[in-house]
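A student in our group prepared the protein record below, which I am reviewing. What it holds is a sequence and that sequence's fold in token form. My question to you is simply how this chain folds and whether the tokens agree. Do not assume that whoever made the record got everything right. I have pasted the whole thing underneath without changing anything:
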Amino acid sequence: MKKKIGILLICLLVCLSLTGCWDAVELQKRAVVLMIGIDQNEAGQGVIVSLQLARPQKFAPSSKGDTGSDSQNIVVVSRSGVEVTDAIRQIQLAIDRKLFFGHVHGLVIQESLARHGLLSIMDPLLQSRTVPREAWLFVSHHSAREVLKQTPALDAIPSTYLANFFENRLFFKRPYEVTLGGFHQRFATPGIEPIAVWLDVEDKALSAPKIQGLAAFLGDKFVGKLNPSQSLGWEFIVNQFPRSPLTFSCASDQPNRFVIDIRNVKSVIRVSAYQMGVPQMWVRVELHGYVEGGNYILQQDQHELQVLKQRIAEELQSMVQTSLTQCQQTLETDILGTGLFVYRHNPHMWHGDKEWYTMFHRMKTSVHTEVHLDFLQTYRPISL
């Protein structure tokens, strides 16, 4: 009996020691951050941090049934500081609510600032326990503050609209690689360099930024971009292109185009031993799809199918080769991950990132493409 009473007293003491949500903050006392923008200070020293803050009281539907958004749903607050943490502190002192970063959808960084390196800028956000590592990472040619101030009419929350728009527009199998956490993961991995989403001028029809391709980095410094065609070639090389329709031109001298429903893309990268001090890279891209149609498709027979296969193979090889040339010759950064392949599969050839980049831009490449097509219709006429 005494033993049972002792156990009961211990359980009561344990219950009294439970403090519950000791660090909880009421919702009406939070300032929910939806997007973060970082620009370079005009004086050249320090940064300007802009936070897109939600105004929850404006998200309730109006009595008239109007579901459109207005500029009062969000507010953008900007402050300058010596570095990111200092600027965020200045914003915190300027508002009456506690900043909460648990719902951040994206981080936008101005191009001129990204050229000096992102690690010192992103380090406070990466070490924060509330900022999601799945937040999109963007490099903008224009001011990051202007991106945050855009208010699309299709969604009451601009950051939600932009996040969905970017996700639909990117068409990645592994979108994590263009996020805050993906940037840090690629930065810390040997033989592969980080990437981000490249933004350019605003699309006024959609009230949203235009995605112009990929931003390429060498280490944590922005070195250039891949345009949409080059970005598409990069997706094929690294096996990132998902199931999606894609248009191809009929010929270089014809404006007509046809649509292919790409069902599967499989790519293989191999790096052979050094020949005359230069590594050899072999890229093979295999594409499977269905012919959906187009003004170029006149009849459905095997001869025409062979013509379409040949045309797709030529354009696919051109996109892949252009992307390789941009990464090797112009940007000289291995965002393809060929060095990672050497590091994993041929460790005797790997002597560190520094030596690899003396070889990467001189590496000879060979591209092979294979296309498998079928017409979308599977029936055939029945003759009596």
